[in-house]
């Protein structure tokens, strides 16, 4: 029995690739694929979910019916505005103990967290709050004022209404 010679390769058959060449090409494609997936992953990273907070400097119009010594807390703000015969002033509602928002009372302020009480001028009448409520800067005239909760002023500072 005679063995047949291997079939003659056609011109159109691809060149045989040596194992070493195949592994080299495969490793290059694997590296390219890894870099592509890494790039896609970085592009799809979640964006920081930081919301801008409202400015702590705001314009407010006092209600016409606001009685002398009565507190007016603008919606969404942590400052109480007052009007009396000497002018308009603002007192922060952030408790100086641990930062709770104090409630306005007819005789002053009361903190719901640990029971501190403050006089109507912000001074402490019952602890544990260590310091009085700060007064905030108010500017303007007429019925419209600009309050800056980030700027404190000495207690008793009022602007003419
Ligand atoms: S936070 Fe107001 S008394 Fe503690």
Give an overview in words.
- With 161 residues, the chain is α+β, with helices and mostly antiparallel strands.
- The protein folds into two domains: 16-47; 57-153, Rieske [2Fe-2S] iron-sulphur domain (Rieske Iron-sulfur Protein, 3-layer Sandwich).
- It has one helix and nine strands.
- The strands form two sheets. It has a five-stranded antiparallel beta sheet, with no helix packed on it.
- The chain is rod-shaped.
Q: How many E strands?
A: 9
Compute the number of structural domains: 2
Q: How would you spell out the order of helices and strands?
A: HEEEEEEEEE
CATH topology of the largest domain: Rieske Iron-sulfur Protein
Could you name the CATH class of the largest domain? Mainly Beta
Estimate the strand proportion: 25-35%
What fraction, in percent, of the residue positions are helical? Answer: 10-25%
CATH architecture name of the largest domain: 3-layer Sandwich
The kinds of small molecule bound in this structure are: FE2/S2 (inorganic) cluster
Task: Kindly list the characteristics that best describe this protein.
alpha+beta; 2 domains; binds FE2/S2 (inorganic) cluster; 4-stranded antiparallel beta sheet; Rieske Iron-sulfur Protein; 1 helix; 5-stranded antiparallel beta sheet; 9 strands; rod-shaped; 161 residues; 16% helix
């Amino acid at each position: 029995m005679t063995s047949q010679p291997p079939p003659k390769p056609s011109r159109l058959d691809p060149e045989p690739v040596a194992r070493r060449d195949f592994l080299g090409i495969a490793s290059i494609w694997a590296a390219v694929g890894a870099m592509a997936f890494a790039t896609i992953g970085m592009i799809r990273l979640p964006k920081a979910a930081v919301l801008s907070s409202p400015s702590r400097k705001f314009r407010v119009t006092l209600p016409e019916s606001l009685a002398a010594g009565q507190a007016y807390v603008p919606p969404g703000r942590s400052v109480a505005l007052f009007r009396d015969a000497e002018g308009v002033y603002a007192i922060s509602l952030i408790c100086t103990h641990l930062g709770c928002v104090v409630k306005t009372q007819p005789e002053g302020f009361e903190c719901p967290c640990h029971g501190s009480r403050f006089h109507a001028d912000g001074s402490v009448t019952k602890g544990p709050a260590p310091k009085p409520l700060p007064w905030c800067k108010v500017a303007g005239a007429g019925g419209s004022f600009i309050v800056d909760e980030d700027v404190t002023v000495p207690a008793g500072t009022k602007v003419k209404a």
